[in-house]
């Protein structure tokens, strides 16, 4: 098939969960024999050095250069304030681009496609109406994330703002997925939410995955070191780290005073770092080209998330490296890891701390849990699992694609006869 794939982000270099899923999706679709035309945003200078790698996967690509305002920047706060009076939530409105819309319109006008895949509801804001069958991909659900944020935000003004944004986001996502012939969700949990959001929508589970061959089991870990992996300018990760340091870390230190936590991830702001400046046990890596050596040194990976949707690639990466992991229920949501055998699940601070202490003190238990986690990733969350799920999902659209192709043939024949 000829597929037009549109995304908010350029897929290379792979630097976060969003680009990990995007690049894995593109690779899997190409490996199934389909030809991809990628239309996406890129930041100034972002493409340099990756052109050849992208051409191996995408037959064609067209990029719209755009520098997005970071959510935590001062300018973004003013834009958020103005967005209160708009029916479109700020999270989606900030990606509106006449240049991107014109680019997509031109591609659809000048080329023949069997399918359009829109990488997220946010990307749909620039997608023009089309008769080509449409697949909406989802790696998270913004309205659900905002609803969870409301539950934990103590500031009344922020809570009210997020509540309003959640209502608008739910409406926007319902409209975006309502345009689609098929929705792709990364877990059964999210697929159930999508079906409730859009009655009658056909939904397939297309999981997040990692290439297990890219991850090795490390044997020289520090028994006093924990790691939390996450982009440090994303609200759920910031909330998780603050929650862990304030509510869980002191409980662990009572039993293991020399314990330390490595916060591994790019873009921690100076203001955010300053919150932990008086806690020597917390260390930030900042932006690194590869976090795997950092993760390898840790005995335990912690995932204390309270906000978020989708599934956590940090768990799949940790599992692929054979790491013993302790997570909240939300952190491990949507993944088929067996609690107690492949991962420890704890929501109360005391239970979470006890789980971490148990693993730090027991190398045999750590090894058993980590090996079981790696087997789970290899069985259910490797690239081959993604290829199978995409192939199955696209096969359900065969009727719609065939009808669209017949309509194009009729239009083409009519145009030829008129000329």
Features:
single chain, 419 residues, alpha/beta, seven-stranded parallel beta sheet, six-stranded parallel beta sheet, 16 helices, 47% helix, globular, disordered C terminus
Strand content: 15-25%
The major β-sheet equals: 7 strands, parallel
Widest beta sheet: strand line-up: 3-2-1-4-5-6-7
Secondary-structure class: alpha/beta
Helix and strand sequence = EHEHEHHHEEHHEHEEHEHEHEHEEHHHH
Low-pLDDT runs of 5+ residues are 410-419
Folded structure, characterized:
Strand 1, helix 1 and strand 2 form a beta-alpha-beta unit. Helix 6 packs antiparallel against helix 7 and helix 9 packs across helix 13. The strands form two sheets. The chain has a seven-stranded parallel beta sheet, with helices on both faces. The chain has a six-stranded parallel beta sheet with strand order 10-9-8-11-12-13, sandwiched between helices. It has 419 residues and is of the alpha/beta class. The protein is globular. The relative contact order is 0.11. The two termini are 28 Å apart. The protein is built from 16 helices and 13 strands.
